[in-house]
Specification:
Layout (H helix, E strand, L loop, with lengths): L3 E8 L1 E5 L4 E3 L4 E2 L3 E5 L6 E9 L6 E4 L2 E3 L6 H19 L10 E8 L9 H16 L6 H8 L13 E5 L12 E5 L7 E7 L9 H11 L1 H24 L2 H21 L9 H19 L7 E4 L5 E6 H14 L4 E2 L10 E4 L2
Parallel strand pairs: 7-9, 12-16
Antiparallel strand pairs: 1-6, 2-5, 3-4, 5-10, 6-9, 7-8, 10-11, 12-14, 13-14, 15-16
Helix pairs in contact: 1-2, 2-3, 5-6
This protein binds (3R)-3-hydroxy-3-methyl-5-(phosphonooxy)pentanoic acid (PMV).
């Protein structure tokens, strides 16, 4: 008897231009385009195995060993249904293909980092889920086509289908068919950029991105200014900076956009606070580090960014990473650099704080 099973993994991505706000909550269509870097280290990945079998009586999913409910009409069930629909199309065209679209699936997913702590676990999770189902169903879909489905699981997941520097184009079509991820540049194009993850807290975040975004869309005038007058230009400028490997511009825009994202959270009614005192101390440290460099006639040496949680991600050229790790360890004595701070592509991680 044949076994129909496939495993795939996907890394987290950290946005430089933040996605915050939906114009369609069911299809997950964003109010602005966004751009991220897909982290290529082994520490921050989701790995998912999917299996289809005629003996299964319902679709089931386990996350880190615990079963999660697949709610009817929910995001998981939407992604699974979309993948089955694509498989059915393939079976209709190729009658010799086994009818896997009619079988129930069991899905087992594992994150090797804290779930829901502002480390984009939903991004890597839904990207790995869609990739593993695409492999199980032998779908000839491109990463951009798969991004349309991952987006319906968690918006930011669409950007984890590709490596390197990835834009999520908001699109204009009401059916979401042009709201997809595209690669702006490969990792190899600008391999010199590294990401240092500072895990300030691995607690589950207080306000989910879904409810936070909805409240921001309903109450923040600054979000409207951001959508119409700020993000479109930033998308163009940061894409050009990536093409030119211009770290100064990349860093400036990344920090400005993180600040504006947290400003719209603060303006939301009631306000949302994702950063804490340690997060703000990390900002102060990076600001000072850059100031000293610029005053000495140099350039920006590092950029901080924070998602919907207190953890910092610091982007920096490789030559500065060792200095930044030493600085963080000096000012946050509880911080422990990961045993292997320079992974496959030299990405470093620091835990504690
Ligand atoms: O995809 P979600 O619902 O987890 O939202 C992610 C939102 C941010 O991480 C704060 C920004 C982003 O673009 O990833």
């Amino acid at each position: 008897m044949s076994v129909y099973q496939a495993t795939a993994s996907a890394p987290v991505n950290i946005a430089c231009i933040k996605y915050w706000g939906k114009r369609d909550t069911k299809l997950i269509l964003p109010t602005n385009s966004s751009l991220s870097v897909t982290l290529d280290q082994d520490h921050l990945r989701s790995t998912t195995t999917s299996r289809a079998d005629p003996s299964f009586t319902k679709d089931r999913l386990w996350l880190n060993g615990k079963e999660d409910e697949i709610k009817d009409g929910g995001r998981l069930s939407t992604c699974i249904a979309e993948m089955k629909r694509m498989r059915k199309e393939l079976e209709d065209k190729n009658p010799n293909e086994p009818k896997l679209s009619a079988y129930k699936v069991h899905i087992c997913s594992h994150n090797n980092f804290p779930t829901a702590a502002g480390l984009a676990s939903s991004a890597s999770g839904f990207a790995a889920l869609v990739k593993s189902l695409a492999a199980l169903y032998a779908l000839p879909a491109s990463p951009s086509q798969l991004s349309l489905i991952a987006r319906q699981g968690s918006g930011s997941a669409c950007r984890s289908l590709m490596g390197g520097f990835v834009a999520w184009e908001q699109g204009t079509s009401p059916d979401g068919s042009d709201s997809l991820a595209v690669q702006v540049a490969t990792r190899e194009h600008w391999a010199d950029i590294h990401a240092l993850i500072c895990v300030v807290s691995d607690d589950k975040k207080g306000t989910s991105s879904t409810s936070g975004m909805q409240r921001t869309v309903e109450t923040s005038p600054l979000l409207q200014h951001r959508i119409h007058n700020v993000v479109p230009q930033r998308m163009r400028d940061i894409s050009a900076a990536i093409q030119k490997k211009d770290f100064d511009t990349f860093a400036r825009i990344t920090m400005q956009d993180s600040n504006q994202f947290h400003a719209v959270c603060l303006e939301t009614d009631p306000p949302i606070f994702y950063m804490n005192d340690v997060s703000r101390a990390i900002i102060a440290l990076i600001v000072e580090y850059n100031r000293v460099s610029v005053e000495a006639g140099g350039k920006l040496k590092a950029a901080y960014t924070f998602d919907a949680g207190p953890n910092a991600v610091i982007y920096a050229p490789k030559e500065n990473v060792r200095e930044i790790v030493n600085m963080i360890v000096k000012y946050f004595p509880q911080a422990e650099p990961f045993k292997d701070p320079f992974g496959l592509f030299g990405t470093a991680g620091v835990q504690g704080g």
